[in-house]
Amino acid sequence: MGYKLGLIGYPVQHSLSPFIHQKFMENTGIQGSYQLFATEPNQLEKRVNELKRAGISGFNVTVPHKQAVMSYLDEVDTDAYRIGAVNTVVNDKGRLKGYNTDGSGYLRSLAEAYPDVLRQEKKALILGAGGAARGIYRALAKHGIQRIGIANRTKSKAEGLLDLQDLHTETEILSYSEAESSLDNYDLIVQTTSVGMSPEYDEQVISLNKVKPHTVVSDIVYKPLTTKLLRQAGDLGARTHQGHTMLLYQAQYAFEIWTGTHPQMESLVEQLEQRLRGK
């Protein structure tokens, strides 16, 4: 019969998750299905109960339900609870447990591309203070990055991430203009907002004019694959890290939680890139 997996969110019709998880199943030899469950906010509790009764093996959660779904689970992983959002749920013999794989998936994708930038003495800057920023900040702090800046349009929202820091983490809260003027202090810059996403191709959250060469500039937006921010980063001699790799590696981590298997990624990054390019 195989694994019964899926995604709840609204809207979900353009999700790449079925493509990704089908590739994982082929890769590992696991049998199963992955379905999309469009779920409006007022239908969330009903949907979760339906999936539980149907014996679903696990499901992903996307906007707008990552926070609200926590109220309908039997247990929430410690990190997901601290982050305040769940994107992966496993059904363990009738008990639903929630996890957040965004930060860990981001870290995996970065380590695969640029492992040198994850040394403790490196300094990271996160642009934005939303849900993705919370997951990535928590993952970087847990990994041992000792100095992290968080820049946001409103500093008070960025300060809300400070409850996630570890004892060894020094965190600086900045405005976007302050971040722009101090970019040469950072080895890693992570753009976590939706700025630059299709169809707003010509927008970027800050200018990178002061970025130093060899800095890694990472953008979690993956439509388009190369955002305006990443184009400027490349022009200035920085190294670039595209968002579709985070999408793939956070899905890999979710698949591991559900199945206990580890899909190999050798050709999947390229396959996903070709899919996004419409090839």
From TrEMBL:
Shikimate binds at residues 15-17, 62, 87, 102, 222, 250. The active site is at 66 (proton acceptor). Keywords: Amino-acid biosynthesis, Aromatic amino acid biosynthesis, NADP, Oxidoreductase. It comes from Sediminibacillus halophilus. One of its GO terms (biological process) is chorismate biosynthetic process. InterPro entries: Aminoacid_DH-like_N_sf (IPR046346), NAD(P)-bd_dom_sf (IPR036291), SDH_C (IPR041121), Shikimate_DH (IPR011342), Shikimate_DH-bd_N (IPR013708), Shikimate_DH_fam (IPR022893), Shikm_DH/Glu-tRNA_Rdtase (IPR006151). GO terms for molecular function: NADP binding; shikimate 3-dehydrogenase (NADP+) activity. Homodimer. Pathway: Metabolic intermediate biosynthesis; chorismate biosynthesis; chorismate from D-erythrose 4-phosphate and phosphoenolpyruvate: step 4/7. Residues 120-194 form the Quinate/shikimate 5-dehydrogenase/glutamyl-tRNA reductase domain. Belongs to the shikimate dehydrogenase family. This is Shikimate dehydrogenase (NADP(+)). Residues 243-263 form the SDH C-terminal domain. GO terms for cellular component: cytosol. Involved in the biosynthesis of the chorismate, which leads to the biosynthesis of aromatic amino acids. Catalyzes the reversible NADPH linked reduction of 3-dehydroshikimate (DHSA) to yield shikimate (SA). It is an enzyme of class 1 (oxidoreductase). It catalyses: shikimate + NADP(+) = 3-dehydroshikimate + NADPH + H(+). It holds the Pfam family Shikimate_DH. Residues 7-89 form the Shikimate dehydrogenase substrate binding N-terminal domain. The gene is aroE. NADP(+) binds at residues 128-132, 152-157, 220, 243. Its EC number is 1.1.1.25.
